[in-house]
Each structure stands twice: as C-alpha cells, then as structure tokens.
Amino acid sequence: MVAIDTNVLVRLLVVDNPAQSKACHELFTSGDIFIPDTVLLEAEWVLRVAFDLTPAEICTAFRRICGLHNVTVSDGQRVAQVIDWHEAGFDFADAFHLALSKEQEVLKTFDADFIKSARKHTDRRVERP
User: Fold this and answer.
1) What distances in angstroms separate CA 109 from CA 32, 37, 92, 124, one per listed residue?
2) What's 51's DSSP letter?
3) Sign of the Cα pseudo-torsion (5, 49, 86, 53, in order)
4) Contact 96, 44 (CB under 8 A)
5) By the 8 A CB rule, do 86 and 95 touch?
6) What is the pLDDT of residues 87-112, one digit of tens each?
7) Is 46's pLDDT higher than 90?
8) If both were cysteines, with which of 6, 34, 118, 124 could 42 make a disulfide (CB 3.0 to 4.6 Å apart)?
C-alpha cells in the first residue's frame, strides 16, 4: 500500500498539470492507496481556497475517491461522517475535530460558528471553555 500526500490527491482531482495528473491517475490505478486524515483536511482547504470548489463539489470528489475499491482511509465511517457534516454546512476542519473527539464528553472552543453548527447538526456537546 502506498500513502499519498496532499499534492497527489489535488493533482488527481483538479487535473491542472497534465503530466502530474497522469502520474497520479496511473498511481491510483496501479495499486492500493492510503489517504491520511491530514491529507483530506489539507486537500479540502486547497480545493476550497486555491481552486474555488464548493463544499458540494469537494464532498462529491472525496466520496468518489474514498469509495474506490483500492483506497483506504484511517476510519471510513468517520470520514463519511465528516463529509456528511461538511455537506450539511459544517466547516470541514471543525467536522474533523468533532469526529476525532467522539469519545470525549465535550469539545471546548471559542468558535461560535463551530458551536452553532454542532448544535444544529449533531447531538455532540461543543461549548465555550
């Protein structure tokens, strides 16, 4: 299995550099791929900020890539939850923070939007310190 970095995932999704995109496509069709959580987190930011993709476009792309038979992520259910929350209006990073802290009784933050999204979309406790 081969782990990939953010730039590999982004090149595969946006096809902005033909040679690199071809190499990424060949990599994804030649064997098993592992995508770390941190790569998904960084790729969302790059796709949103540098390429102006919408949350819906990013979620569709991530579902397509993570759903490939040869692609593995650390926890498929967690990644699916993060994508679902993001599609429902959660900030992607906040959704990941919440998903990764699911075993904790509460997540503390000063981010009012995070608290509001958590209350709207989940039963998880997110509150100010």
Assistant:
1) 37, 21, 15, 13
2) T
3) negative
4) no
5) yes
6) 999 999 999 999 999 899 999 999 99
7) yes
8) 6
